[in-house]
From TrEMBL:
All residue ranges annotated as the Nudix hydrolase domain in the record: 138-293
GO MF: ADP-ribose diphosphatase activity
InterPro entries named among the record's database cross-references: NUDIX_hydrolase-like_dom_sf (IPR015797), NUDIX_hydrolase_dom (IPR000086), NUDT9 (IPR039989)
Stretches the record annotates as Disordered: 103-125
PANTHER family: ADP-RIBOSE PYROPHOSPHATASE, MITOCHONDRIAL, NUDIX HYDROLASE
Gene3D superfamilies, per database record: Nucleoside Triphosphate Pyrophosphohydrolase
Name recorded for this polypeptide: NUDT9
Length: 298
């Protein structure tokens, strides 16, 4: 099972392992243990593997988006009450308890070992579902003509990118799907809050923005569904997403939006799509798929 899923994802996760020997995100003390490439897969025998078991205090304090500290009573690989604990990657395995009886029954990261047990800073045991809206337009000059890259001779596509408050890096303005929430609602909310700052706009402007976003988000194309190589992933908790592309071909709808960073974003702008971008988690993989769909410069 684990081996098949690793193949489907396309590559081993690297971002969560990269933090070794640095400190775990937003925490001063917690470290991961190093996991070499050939021991990422759960199929690779590693009897001595015994990373720290760590869940951050704010997750353990019981916010409504987080699971309880113990997995007791939770139903994995199914819809559990109003929480979808299914993975886009297929059925995930549960820890047999062979290495550590205390961890028996915990969901196992479908891509493999990360060097940290527990949930780290994530709320859910198993998959934590997110949604990523990729809003695009053609790059144009002042006269409105589409711009071509001089080297590839292909048109340049732009997407709305934000700077994440937590990592200070450029990213797609995605966010977590609330329990029982339709993904279309998540896509619109995250874009509106992070790229249009609707949380701080006066009500009449919120209404205007909401109408514009609703119009544009009526027609999207799914570009990715699955595991995200997110630095927060642990052995027992990981992020999965569904990424949709919303393209404004004429440049008259979203192309004319006034972007304004809000909520978890501290910056927002239209960014030219190219393979040289450095983006959060595996967001560049999603952007590549969008570039392939539109046949633009890469
Ligand atoms: C990434 O983290 C997802 O692709 C999504 O963009 C984001 C969701 O986490 P938060 O932005 O809510 O922290 O893995």
């Amino acid at each position: 099972m684990a081996r098949a899923i690793t193949k489907l994802f396309g590559h081993m996760h690297t971002n969560c392992r990269k933090s070794f020997p640095h400190l775990y995100i937003r925490d001063d003390d917690q470290k991961r243990c190093a996991v070499p490439d050939d021991l990422v897969s759960w199929d690779a025998e590693w009897k001595e593997y015994d990373p720290d078991d760590y869940t951050m205090p704010h997750v353990l304090s019981g916010p409504e988006w987080a699971d309880p500290p113990s997995i007791e009573g939770l139903k994995f690989n199914t819809i559990d009450g109003n929480i979808d604990r299914r993975s886009h990657m297929g059925e995930y395995s549960l820890d047999s308890g062979e290495n550590d009886e205390f961890c028996k029954g915990r969901p196992l990261n479908p891509v493999g070992r990360t060097g940290l047990k527990g949930r780290g800073t994530l709320g859910k045991w198993g998959p934590n579902h997110a949604a990523d809206p990729i809003v695009t337009r053609w790059k144009r000059d002042d006269a409105g003509n589409k711009i071509t890259n001089p080297v590839s001779q292909k048109l340049v596509l732009q997407f709305v990118a934000i700077v994440r408050r937590d990592h200070g890096v450029w990213a797609v303005p995605g966010g977590m799907v609330d329990a029982g929430e339709n993904i279309n609602v998540t896509l619109k909310r995250e874009f509106s809050e992070e790229a249009m700052n609707t949380l701080e706009l006066p009500p009449d402007q919120v209404e205007k923005v909401t109408t514009q976003v609703n119009d544009l988000f009526q027609h999207g194309t799914e570009v990715y569904r699955g595991y995200v190589d997110d630095p927060r992933n642990t052995d027992n908790s990981w992020i999965e997403t569904v990424a949709h592309n919303f393209h404004d071909d004429s440049g008259n709808s979203v192309g004319a939006f006034t972007l304004n960073a809000g909520d978890d974003a501290i910056g927002v702008k239209w960014v030219d799509i190219s393979q040289d971008l450095q983006l959060f988690a595996s967001h560049l993989d999603f952007i590549k798929k969008v570039a392939d769909i539109h046949g633009c410069h890469w």
